[in-house]
Amino acid sequence: MGSKIPIYPDFKKIEIEDKDFFNKVLYKFPPYSDFNLLSILSWGAMGGNCFSTLNGNLVIKIKDYLSDNFQYSIIGESEIDLSLHKLLSDFNSLSFVPEVVINQIKSTNEFKVTHDRDNDDYVISLPRLTKLEGADLRTLRHHLNVFTGFFPSHQVEVLDVTNADTMDEIRALNMKWFAEKNFDEEKQRQQAAIVETFFKYSSQFNCVHLGLFIDDKMVTYYSNEILKSKIIMGHFGAITNKDFKDCVSMMQYEVARFFVNQGYSFQNVEQDTGLSGLRQAKLSYDPEYFLKKYSITLN
Fold first, then answer.
1. What's the CA gap between 111 and 74, in Å, rounded?
2. pLDDT tens for each residue of 103-112
């Protein structure tokens, strides 16, 4: 049985027991990554992620992806203007607000709405990615050619994350990546906790974990959650590895091939948070469209 649902201004910690409620509220909306329960649970490893309900809408308080601050957001379709006024009188601003909410605002002159490009979700066409056709996929084709030039043979395997040896390989890859990113000790601890929390809960969601191997050595991995309407959500993995140039591009291509064979059409690869390298990489997949998000204040 799910936990008691809070009514605003009360909030409660987001827990796995809230899965049925989140599914009930979110099924009618596009799969925005900020409202994805598995993502919220994972990024909430340090504590503080909470939710409430206001006029039948879902309100979340979640940790910012690049800082220790918390952001508030809302999704729903009931009394949106009234709900926004109430939240903005308490918190001054809202972030990660989905376009589906913005489109329901009636008194548009009462709110200042700003497009938050850094947090738009990229949605890519998996079949188009597998074909590698057209000028827009030129960069990806180049990366794949570089990878296969250095590493002419590789394998992709479905990972059993209940296997201790597999998880040890994943942890080793993560720690290598943390070091290459020059994360300090505290940052490494936080990132490791987020990933460990993801794998703790992933078995309770419809997840598939793939590993890219060269000479029986895992060089990167990518975990995806199967959602509705032929869409998958790219979660953790696809981490860079300086020893295996362009392995992330090859992992993305192999993920596309794997899920196309399973009948899936789109992948939400989440936002770039304004990081130039991440933006460049995600644009190289030639996104089909974006799930746009906005920040809101009162005028």
1. 15
2. 999 999 999 9
